[in-house]
Amino acid sequence: MNEKPRQTLCTIMRDYGREVAQDPKRCKGLLNDLCGEHKREINVLVSAMDERVASDLLNLPPNIPPQMRMPQLVKRLHDHTGIATEYAWWAVESWALALGVIQRCDLTEVRKEREKQEREERERQERQEREERERQERQERQERKRKEQREWWGRIRRERKKAWGFITRWTIAATGGFAALYVTIPPLNNVLNDILMNHALYDPVDYGLWTMSYETGVAAFSALFGAMLGTISGAFLGVVQGMTLHRYTPRTTWWILSTAVGFGGSFAILYPFNILGGIDYDGKFLFVPGAIFGLVLGIAQWLVLRRHTVRATWWILALTIGFGVICVFANGPFYDFVGYTVFLFVILGCMLEWLLRNPRKD
Q1: What mean pLDDT is reported for the chain?
Q2: In the chain, where are the structural domains located?
Q3: Could you read off the pLDDT of 249-258 as tens digits, one per residue?
Q4: Nearest to 219 by CA among 179, 170, 271, 183
Q5: What gap in Å lies between CA 10 and CA 20, rounded to an integer?
Q6: Which site from 72, 238, 275, 321 is most exposed, i.e. has the minimal number of CB atoms within 10 Å?
Q7: H or E element: which one contains 181?
Q8: 184 vs 178, 222, 283, CA distance in Å?
């Protein structure tokens, strides 16, 4: 700020008296006449008059030092008019000098008080800015956390929906396929019994180089027919199950093939015992053939799953125990079989979904 308007103000107060400090219009006119080129300084001085800075300095109580009152006037002028703190200090000091409240030698002490106030103001502003930054950072962290939680819950809901969708499709497909096999296999089994009763039960089977005994012939024919029937049944069930696996495996052909091989192998093992009466259909004794069927099928399908998941061995254990248990409890009417099969394939669907959720990295 220029010093000439300050000196001019002191001259006006000396020549015209302190009464001019009570008349902003007259004071502004005198300042414009004597130093009109300094518009900024004149406006600041007149604004201080409008805010009663000059009146408060004139009516200052004797027990209050001017150095203590001036910072308050500066703050009021700054808050009410928006004048910069530096300009507000210049205006208050100019009026204090012009009115004789302080002398020029007192400006050092005033400036010390001013510097102290400015330092406190800076610290206050820095503290407020720091608190505001911390508040904004807390809000941003909380917002990020809420967003992450929403995304996490959304991902969980999508994964859960996807998982239950897969389990439902798997259960419907597998249960429907097994129900169809449950209905179609017994008639084919009767055909096999008729063929064996009409041929192998009466005469040995002669192949020229060697002759089969009764048991060997029955076992050979039943194993061959069981392998054929099992392969056809397994291929059918593999196609049905493959419809639910095409999203997880790039090619379902291997799954169909492995299911056909698993069915064919297990039927080839179990059919001779069935025809020769080696299987006791008392429920508690059906665990072993059911477990054998599940073991062979599990090993065949494990060869495919191990290429896609890291815990494929659990599938063998699940099929072995699952089919062993279902053969114990589902040895009854069709609706019992379907009910237990649905329960089994829900469990197997959960197991398969868990396995496919942990794919191999390589």
Answers
A1: 79
A2: 4-102, 162-356
A3: 767 889 999 9
A4: 271
A5: 11
A6: 72
A7: helix 107-198
A8: 10, 17, 22
Residue 283's CB is within 10 A of a number of other CB atoms, namely: 13
Helix (H) or strand (E) holding 205: strand 205-206
CB contact burial 253-263 (16+ within 10 A = b; e otherwise): ebbbbbbbbbb
Which DSSP helix (H) or strand (E) runs through 87?
helix 85-98
Helices 253-275 & 214-245 angle (0-180, nearest 10): 150
Residue with tokens 């095409």: 246
pTM of the full structure: 0.56
Side-chain-side CA neighbours of residue 167 (13 Å): 21
Decide if 275 contacts 193 (C-beta within 8 A). Answer: yes
More confident residue, 103 or 293: 293
Q: What are 301-340's pLDDT values in tens digits? A: 999 988 888 888 999 999 999 888 888 776 655 555 667 7
- 64 by Cβ neighbours in 10 Å (0-12 / 13-18 / 19+) ranks as exposed
- β-bridge mates for residue 309, sequence order: 359
Vertex 32: Cα angle to 30 and 33 (nearest 5): 65
Query: Can you tell me the distance from the alpha carbon of 137 to that of 224, in angstroms, rounded to the nearest whole number?
Result: 75
Residue 187 has pLDDT above 90, yes or no: no
pLDDT at 66 over 90: no
Task: Give the closest residue to 51 by CA, choosing from 76, 69, 17, 26.
Answer: 76
